[in-house]
């Protein structure tokens, strides 16, 4: 049964505009916007009216980098597609793009089908997939073409993690050449994993086993070197490149130099690099293990370069790289050996709020918040304008956001399936109040009313950010 919904009285904020407008929704899509008090808005009838007075009306967030149920280091990410997408909704995110994993010796199809099975019928919000390429060969290169036709239009490669996900430069070049032909977008984890493994071995031999050494061995220069190398390989292949989880000033500089040459090179950073630092990795006892992720947290002085990159559009997207592992029973696998701490942080619920705090703090303007969290990730990964904006014809993924409420982030109140918060005790201004996914209310005045299975798989077109 079709339900007509009208959202009245709010400030509609998109990447392009800020409008005091009412929003009409029917059959899961936005039908029209009209100015408050106008004859057009006044003539609308509805089965459900949502009062957004003194609130922002935002497009649902698009988190283009999550890892639900990811096997890693002898364990697996603690959020399932059910718990993780529910937490995403609580945080104002209405679409995730997760990573299906190809295992070495297996086909892309096998890996993709495994992830379809994990997610199908379990998601509270809509989802799509990237494909991790762990084994580039003649067969998997052909499979890339078929996946692009199926709506899996981006492929992640790793210069890190030898023996697990790592691809050498020859394999990377072949995959880039293929994507140049089929329209796929190569995503790169840019760290020199071969060199890092040497530094890990040497650190452990010196008895340097605490979590803080995770950051010290994964040096900024090795992120910058890999970023530079990935850019040059992409140039040779004639392919666009998207560098994931950029954390270091030197890596931002490599991307900026490439973009100044007019190259189709894009960069993503994550809230942890904007708000956390090596000070967290160095917390006493084993507490620093909570903050072990790769690329690692950097010294605080790198944050300014990341914010600047977001303002100048040398970095285009903020995703979470949400990959949670519980402190007790998972992170503590690395007691006495930092290299065995599962890599990853929880954050899918916190991204929109942290970025609103960045607006409050003057790091970015309000529309840029929506651009880097909603519109650009949708465009970058072929989901726009179905996702990432509020406009006639778009999916009615809408967030009613209270910009005034002050909340304290804490594991006691978050909804991610993990026993700690990376932002424990941090006060932020702004909070999600109500969330609609394709016109269906998922969060209603801070109550979860959604259900597993509402979220559907969304096939994607090729990168729209190149147009």
- Sheet-strand content, in percent, reads 15-25%
Helix amount? 25-40%
Main beta-sheet annotation: 9 strands, mixed
Mean pLDDT: 97
Note the overall shape.
globular
Radius of gyration: 21 Å
Separate helix tally: 14
Distance between the termini: 38 Å
Description:
The chain is an alpha/beta fold and about 475 residues long. It is about 30% helix and about 20% strand. It contains 14 helices and 19 strands. Strands 1, 2, 3, 4, 5, 6, 17, 18 and 19 form a nine-stranded mixed sheet that branches. α4 links the parallel β11 and β12. α4 packs parallel to α5 and α5 crosses α8. The longest helix has 18 residues. The radius of gyration is 21 Å and the shape is globular. The mean pLDDT is about 95.
Notable characteristics:
467 residues, nine-stranded mixed β-sheet, eight-stranded parallel β-sheet, 14 helices, single chain, alpha/beta
């Amino acid at each position: 049964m079709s339900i007509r919904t009208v959202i009245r009285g709010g400030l509609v904020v998109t990447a392009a505009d800020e409008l005091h407008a009412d929003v009409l929704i029917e059959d899961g899509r936005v039908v029209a916007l009209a100015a408050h008090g106008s004859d057009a808005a006044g003539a609308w009838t509805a089965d459900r009216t949502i009062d957004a007075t003194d609130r922002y009306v935002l497009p649902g967030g698009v988190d283009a980098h999550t890892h639900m149920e990811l096997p890693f280091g002898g364990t697996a990410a603690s959020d399932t597609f059910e718990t993780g997408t529910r937490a995403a909704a609580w945080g104002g995110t209405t679409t995730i793009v997760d990573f299906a994993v190809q295992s070495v010796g297996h086909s892309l199809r096998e890996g993709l089908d495994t992830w379809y099975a994990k997610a199908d019928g379990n998601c509270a919000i809509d989802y799509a997939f990237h494909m991790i390429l762990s084994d580039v060969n003649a067969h998997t290169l052909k499979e890339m073409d078929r996946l692009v036709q199926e709506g899996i239009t981006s492929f992640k490669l790793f210069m890190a993690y030898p023996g697990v996900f790592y691809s050498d430069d020859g394999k990377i070049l072949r995959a880039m050449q293929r994507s140049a032909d089929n329209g796929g977008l190569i995503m790169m984890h840019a760290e020199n994993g071969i060199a890092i493994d040497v530094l890990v071995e040497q650190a452990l031999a010196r008895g340097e086993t605490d979590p803080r050494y995770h950051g010290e061995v994964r040096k900024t220069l090795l992120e910058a070197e890999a970023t530079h190398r990935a850019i040059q390989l992409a140039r040779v292949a004639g392919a666009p490149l998207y560098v994931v989880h950029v954390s270091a000033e030197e890596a931002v500089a490599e991307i900026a130099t490439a973009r100044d040459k007019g190259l189709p090179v894009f960069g993503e950073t994550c809230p942890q690099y904007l708000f956390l630092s090596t000070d967290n990795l160095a917390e006493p006892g084993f507490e620093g293990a909570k903050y072990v992720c790769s690329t690692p947290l950097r010294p605080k002085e790198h944050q300014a370069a990341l914010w600047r990159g977001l303002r100048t559009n040398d970095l285009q997207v903020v995703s979470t790289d949400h990959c949670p592992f519980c402190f007790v029973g998972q992170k503590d696998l690395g007691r006495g050996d930092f290299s065995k701490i599962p890599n990853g942080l929880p954050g899918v619920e916190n991204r929109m709020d942290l970025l609103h705090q960045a607006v409050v703090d003057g790091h970015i303007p309000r529309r840029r918040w929506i651009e880097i969290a909603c519109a650009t990730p949708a465009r970058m990964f072929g989901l726009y304008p179905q996702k990432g904006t509020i406009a006639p014809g778009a999916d009615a993924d809408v967030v009613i956001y209270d910009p005034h409420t002050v909340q304290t982030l804490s594991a006691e109140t978050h909804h991610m399936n993990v026993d700690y918060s990376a932002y424990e005790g941090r006060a932020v201004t702004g909070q999600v109040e109500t969330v609609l996914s394709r016109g269906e209310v998922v969060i209603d005045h801070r109550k979860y009313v959604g259900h597993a299975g509402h979220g559907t798989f969304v096939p994607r077109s090729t990168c729209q950010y190149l147009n």
